[in-house]
Amino acid sequence: MSEQQVDTGRRRFLTVATSAVGGVAVAGVATPFLMSFFPSERAKAAGAPVEVDISKLEPGQKINVEWRGKPVWLLSRTKQQLADLPKNDPKLVDPKSEVEQQPKYCQNEARSIKPELLVAVGICTHLGCSPTFRPDLAPADLGPEWLGGFYCPCHGSKFDLAARVFKGVPAPKNLEIPPHKYLSDTRLLIGDDK
Ligand code: FES
Asked: Residues 175-194: pLDDT tens digits?
């Protein structure tokens, strides 16, 4: 399973998530992408928290997990990506995250508990498509000032690597940051922060 496959859209995300569950059940062997804990269908529908092993997540790598039927992105940001975040501020709608799209403990420049790990709901705040991960610098289609981020091809909304929305696109708000907490250095719980 390549990262590109996971990122191309919600439908493919769901396909991958479903096959990941099967893979764990049959093989009993987990790769970094398969190490999420998937509760039962009934528990998921009720919004059960999802525990994720992040021990294999490398800087620059992104994985998806499913929570409440939505894709949640876990992106391990590099030092350079973090250093670049403030450069986007003048071009953003809500650079200080003043709109309540995140828990209080993520109302900071990186919109995260630990700066290196972004946890965000991968659903565009325009009409609900799942944006594509575009970490490449200055690609032809996104322009010379692009420092990496997420691009929603449906109607052209752009978000930076803190999931903050750019000005002049249809999406009105930053992407949502779900409640979450670290259970240890290598395990994250999504959906519960108590
Ligand atoms: S749904 Fe993302 S730009 Fe319209």
From this structure: 999 999 999 999 999 999 99
Query: Tokens 């439908």 map to which residue?
Result: 11
Q: How many CA atoms lie within 13 A of 139 on its CB side?
A: 10
Q: Tally the C-alpha atoms within 13 A of residue 87's C-alpha that lie toward its C-beta.
A: 11
Q: Tell the residue nearest (CA) to atom 4 of ligand 1.
A: 155
Greatest extent of the chain over all pairs of C-alpha atoms, in Å: 50
Question: Which tens digit of pLDDT belongs to each residue from 112-148?
Answer: 999 999 999 999 999 999 999 999 999 999 999 999 9
Task: Give the residue among 169, 170, 49 at the shortest CA–CA distance from 119.
Answer: 49
What residue type is assigned to position 18 of the chain? T
Instruction: Give the residue-averaged pLDDT of 54-81.
Output: 97
| Best probe residue, ligand 1, of 126, 133, 174 (max atoms within 8 Å of C-beta) | 126
The span from the CA of 181 to the CA of 190, in Å, is: 7
